[in-house]
Amino acid sequence: xxxxxxxxxxxxxxxxxxxxxxxxxxxxxxxxxxxxxxxxxxxxxxxxxxxxxxxxxxxxxxxxxxxxxxxxxxxxxxxxxxxxxxxxxxxxxxxxxxxxxxxxxxxxxxxxxxxxxxxxxxxxxxxxxxxxxxxxxxxxxxxxxxxxxxxxxxxxxxxxxxxxxxxxxxxxxxxxxxxxxxxxxxxxxxxxxxxxxxxxxxxxxxxxxxxxxxxxxxxxxxxxxxxxxxxxxxxxxxxxxxxxxxxxxxxxxxxxxxxxxxxxxxxxxxxxxxxxxxxxxxxxxxxxxxxxxxxxxxxxxxxxxxxxxxxxxxxxxxxxxxxxxxx
Length: 327
Known about the structure:
Helix content: 55-70%
Strand content: under 5%
Number of strands: 2
Shape: globular
Number of helices: 15
Strand order of the largest sheet: 1-2
Structural class: mainly alpha
Radius of gyration: 22 Å
């Protein structure tokens, strides 16, 4: 008996092989997590290179915060690894089962998968800023007052439970394989890691016109009034140019990083949950059920009127003039 057959016999007798065959379909989407695991040592190396260049400037780098950012990212990866296949895979499989077209994987459909994922990412990212339920998870990525490669790792462990993945379901309904949707999404996030830096200035004009770049993404992380809710693109910036959300970086007005209602905490749980706490506190205020639920889908700055008990549309408070009881 060949050694390989002997090893397989051991696995079969242990029962683990049968267990793996049962679990494998539930973990099928986690090819993207494999990509993240392979890329993480590269991220760490690039971050260390950047750290050596900017470590003496506290406005650009804080060692404790950089470590905390990677811890936040680790929490995100753990929950994605444990729950993505269980929560998202059945829904994607259902949509793909009722797909409209049979799409063979080739260079054309591969490119269309990339393009479709990037298009869906734009709208998912835009919703993450303009709908408070999604913002509650995304805010942790923006709450650092520094812009460096470690900021890219600053993610929320609750992302998988916020259902932002629903924005990609139409692709499965069209006929794109969910596994390749996940792979394209993973490579998009790998690309986006490299736009989180102040060390790279503007790139050649044609690149700046087509792709998301460090310059464009510095604008996205700025809390300056003219930079808020701009440049949502993932790999491509063309969607922002098409849908009117593009803003160039202005050298005379450099981005100030962070959120306008800044949260000053080093506690990972607080960083992950503070906006949920504020949102549910706002929902608990007296009012009709529909108006209370409005806090879920209205913009983060929206507040219900407090001067009348009647059901009226909410008002918008400028983010640079926040309510005093909010972060």
